[in-house]
Design a protein that fits this description.
The complex is a heterodimer of chains A (529) and B (313). With 529 residues, chain A is of the alpha+beta class. Chain A has helices at 2-16, 47-56, 104-115, 124-127, 134-138, 168-171, 182-187, 245-253, 264-270, 298-307, 310-318, 341-345, 353-367, 381-398, 409-418, 436-439, 456-466, 471-488; strands spanning 27-32, 61-63, 69-71, 74-79, 85-90, 149-153, 156-160, 207-213, 217-222, 236-241, 259-262, 276-289, 323-324, 374-378, 403-407, 423-429, 492-504, 508-509, 512-513, 520-521, 526-527. The two termini of chain B are 13 Å apart. Classes of the chains: A alpha+beta (529), B mainly alpha (313). Chains A and B meet through helix 8 and helix 15 of A and helix 2, helix 3, helix 7 and helix 13 of B.
Chain lengths: 529, 313
């Protein structure tokens, strides 16, 4: 009995011990939840890599805290009347971390190199279609001199686009558009070893790297040679790799991190904490129908679109700050100067149980029998919680039992590509702040991964919107495309936009998060203890 | 002896080849490709072929295999897809250090405590220490290491702040993960050595030694331990391989850049060269450990002849 009492007392004593305070410094401690695949701007396309590169380097423009592009290495730029030619003037006296001057040549080389990357991991296929002859250069069909990127002189960089691109100034804030010093880059085994260690990377951003390891993380210190060094408040940034979410929370509680993302389970415990906050970004989760499947007729597809109770899903199941989608384009996406795309377009995907039931009955009558529906989903918590919730929705609203078929992502992709399926849960994160980043996904009619849709009419609508120069008319065209995709043909049904809930120390100021591209920005961050 | 080891090495080479062939075949049956499907589909055919050729995936599987074996014999294990363009040997060796250190420490702690507890338990059969050891052994076997890891991290890292809660900055970071991993070898060792020691203590020669007035300590070390340690050596082989090659859960909880997660990640991402590299590494390591265990038998117990011809003498 005495022993038991002693043991209980020991446990209580352990619990009562306080958390030790951590060392005071002017360094931001944060983390990413996945290992890095590379540190090279040419070979990488991951959001967490962009956080690192955006701190170590810089492009012509940089997004401010309202996600608007501001002059960075370029002090100004002009756009031709047809919206095709951008001419950037670089700042005076900008240098690499070793003192070498940054010239327009560094941009010309970097952009060409990015488009010719052979690893199929980078952003080559994303950026090449925008730049004049970029796609042809990627496929080795033209000379470098024919591509629309040109260093006019040391300080003037000109780029010519295939089509007028409304979001080009936001787009080129991505790390793939950062400059590269050709001589230095080539010296690293022709670029193969570029950014594989601290000695093989050159920095020109607010910070310079002092340590980097794909599995451990990155530490960096303030770059004294940065053109805007006076506005960089931090002495350094420490980015760790922590893949386990509860380990990250423990690290935050132990004072090793200044900010931590919360999982759904932890949100309940912390959502009244003054350090709590949440936001959503531009990654849309949606239902992908296989339109080549005769069992999934238009009425059945529409029934499923209207049967999903999105508000309950985001507020009671996910709880991490996700927002109910109104379609396949995320809510915050830029529309015009007055309102977002979604506010302008209205919702195409929403919950209406009666409408859903009507369409379902019509669809079943058309088939002559009740179809057995299988929902394809990939492993991963994002999809897991959603799949069982959707199953429940369909049971309640449509009175149908949908089977969940869960497999690895690669295996699911194979089925979508080569077999007929009913529908699959899928997601797509924006590459840039414009509706087109989603809408153009469905232009290939033999792509099972996109439901074998891509009708000539749809392709024509996309082509038409691409070459439209008037931004107001273009916006209307984009809305018409999404209406066609969801409201008329019901190829997809939007579910939600990804959200994050987090805890952040009260002394951290301006930890800026962007919903697309470089997801966190530390240039203006400060620690005010 | 040399002849015996030589023969074993030849068997090992054959086994490795079979393992390589099997893994290669199974790996190619995995659905999907190492590329990001969505991005890959956007490329034109010539560009797709270029990317495939870059990684040697444009040839039929048997030729790919022959090439792989050829390159492997030259010491070239190819490059990783997932860790873009980094040589597989570099990927593996940059991750093996932390796992090996933690694993080795866990085995040392486990062996030291497990053996001591087991022997004491046998000597005090049915006493308090014996019961305590058996409860510990059951717990050690049945509580998964990630539960132990999470508890250790929470109490000793977060609440008490005695040790780092994770990361890989100094040696102190390796203590908690090592402790988390040591329970299983500790429990296994304690159980085996206890049972064996109990058995040996019943033997006639122990009774003889006792009746001759030999001290308890001398008897334990000279007669008992050497006889009872054989089964522990047997289980040590797989245990060492298991621990030194990393634990996915424990490494993830303590944010340690170890090799445990690498294998599952490589399979998930169809990172062919890393799968092959790791399989070869694991197999070779396992076979070498088994060989060492077999040779150790002979050293510990002269009655065991590992080579057939020696037994005939």
């Amino acid at each position: 009995m005495k022993r038991t009492l002693f043991a209980i007392l020991m446990v209580v004593a352990l619990l009562a011990c306080s958390v030790p305070a951590m060392a005071q410094d002017n360094v931001l401690h944060t983390y990413v939840d996945r290992v890095f695949r590379t540190f090279s701007q040419v070979k990488g396309s991951d959001g967490h890599l962009f956080i690192v590169l955006g701190s170590l380097s810089e492009g012509l423009l940089r997004l401010d805290e309202n996600h608007n592009p501001q002059p960075a290495l370029a002090e100004s730029y002009t756009v031709s009347d047809d919206g095709l030619v951008y001419t950037f003037t670089l700042r005076d006296g900008i240098t690499w971390s070793d003192g070498t001057p940054i010239t327009a040549k560094d941009f010309e080389f970097s952009w060409l190199e990015a488009m010719s990357d052979q690893d199929a991991n980078g952003y080559a296929d994303v950026i090449a279609p925008f730049i004049k002859n970029g796609w042809a250069w990627m496929n080795h069909e033209v000379e470098a001199s024919e591509v629309g990127v040109k260093a006019i002189d040391d300080k003037t960089f000109e780029c010519t686009l295939e089509n007028p691109t409304a979001f080009w100034d936001r787009f080129i804030t991505l790390p793939v558009f950062f400059p590269l010093n050709e001589e230095f880059y080539r010296a690293q085994d022709g670029g193969e070893l570029y950014a594989t260690s601290v000695d093989t990377i050159m920095c020109c951003g607010p910070f310079v790297v002092t340590y980097m390891d794909l599995g451990v993380g990155v530490t960096m210190e303030k770059n004294p040679n940065y053109w805007d060094a006076e506005n960089v408040k931090l002495d350094g940034v420490d980015i760790k790799v922590i893949t386990d979410s509860s380990a990250a929370l423990n690290a935050y509680e132990a004072g090793e991190l200044d900010r931590v993302n919360l999982s759904s389970i932890d949100v309940v415990l912390y959502n009244s904490d003054p350090e709590f906050g949440s936001y959503s970004d531009f990654r849309n989760y949606f239902v992908q129908f296989d339109v080549a499947n005769p069992e999934m007729n238009l009425n059945i597809r529409k029934a499923i679109n209207y049967a999903i109770d999105r508000e309950t899903l985001v507020n009671e199941i996910l709880m991490t700050g996700a927002v109910a989608a109104g379609g396949v384009v995320s809510r915050g996406i830029h529309g015009n100067d007055e309102m977002t795309y979604r506010d302008y377009a209205g919702d195409f995907s929403y919950y209406d149980p009666e409408l859903a039931k009507q369409y379902w009955d019509a669809g079943v009558a058309e088939l002559g029998y009740t179809p057995e529906i299988v929902m394809l989903t990939a492993e991963g918590t994002d999809f897991d919680d959603m799949a069982t919730f959707l199953q429940d929705c369909f049971r309640k609203v449509l009175g149908v039992e949908v089977t969940i078929n869960k497999m690895t992502q690669k295996a699911r992709n194979e089925i979508m590509k080569y077999e007929t399926y009913d529908f699959a849960l899928n997601a797509w994160g924006a590459d840039y702040d414009d509706a087109m980043t989603w809408l153009e996904l469905w232009i290939n009619n033999s792509n099972g991964y996109r439901g074998n849709y891509g009708t000539p009419e749809y392709i024509a609508m996309i082509e038409d919107a691409r070459s439209e120069t008037d931004s107001a008319v273009r916006l209307d065209k984009l809305v018409a495309i999404e209406k066609k995709l969801i409201d008329e043909d019901c190829v997809v049904a939007g579910i939600y936009d990804r959200g994050y809930s987090y805890l952040q120390r009260p002394y951290v100021d301006k930890y800026i998060v962007h919903p697309v591209g470089q997801s966190a920005e530390f240039k203006w961050t400060s620690i005010n203890k | 002896m040399a002849k015996y080891i030589g023969k074993r090495l030849i068997y090992m080479a054959v086994t490795l080849f079979v393992v390589a062939a099997l893994t290669f075949t199974l790996m190619k049956i995995l659905p999907g490709s190492p590329f990001d499907e969505e991005r890959f589909l956007r490329l034109e055919e010539a560009k797709q072929a270029e990317a495939l050729a870059r990684y040697g995936l444009d040839k039929p599987v048997p030729i790919q295999f022959a090439r792989y074996i050829g390159n492997m014999l030259k010491g070239d294990f190819g490059i990783s897809f997932y860790y873009t363009n980094i040589p597989v040997t570099k990927v593996i060796f940059s991750r093996i250090g932390p796992s090996a250190l933690i694993g080795a420490q866990a085995i040392l702690i486990g062996l030291a405590i497990g053996l001591s507890l087991g022997i004491i338990a046998a000597c005090r059969h049915n006493g308090f220490i014996d019961n305590f050891t058996m409860v510990l052994a059951v717990l050690g076997i049945s509580v998964p290491n990630f539960v132990a890891a999470a508890l250790l991290q929470y109490y000793f890292g977060l609440k008490l702040g005695w040790l780092p809660i994770g990361f890989w900055k100094s040696w102190s970071c390796s203590v908690l993960p090592s402790v988390a991993l040591c329970f299983s070898p500790l429990a296994t060792c304690a159980r085996f050595i206890r049972t064996e020691t109990l058995d040996v203590l019943q033997q006639d020669y122990i009774v003889t030694a006792r009746s001759k007035g030999m001290t308890q300590a001398r008897m334990l070390i000279k007669h008992t331990l050497r006889n009872s340690i054989i089964p522990v050596i047997t289980i040590m082989g797989p245990m060492v391989v298991n621990l030194l090659t990393g634990s996915l859960a424990v490494e993830s909880i303590f944010s340690i850049p170890g090799i445990g997660g690498l294998f599952t990640e490589s399979v998930k991402n169809n990172d062919y060269n890393v799968i092959m590299g790791l399989t070869m590494f694991y197999s070779l390591f396992y076979m070498v450990t088994i060989l060492i265990v077999d040779v150790t038998y002979g050293l510990v117990d002269p009655r065991i002849h590992i080579a057939g011809e020696e037994a005939a003498e």
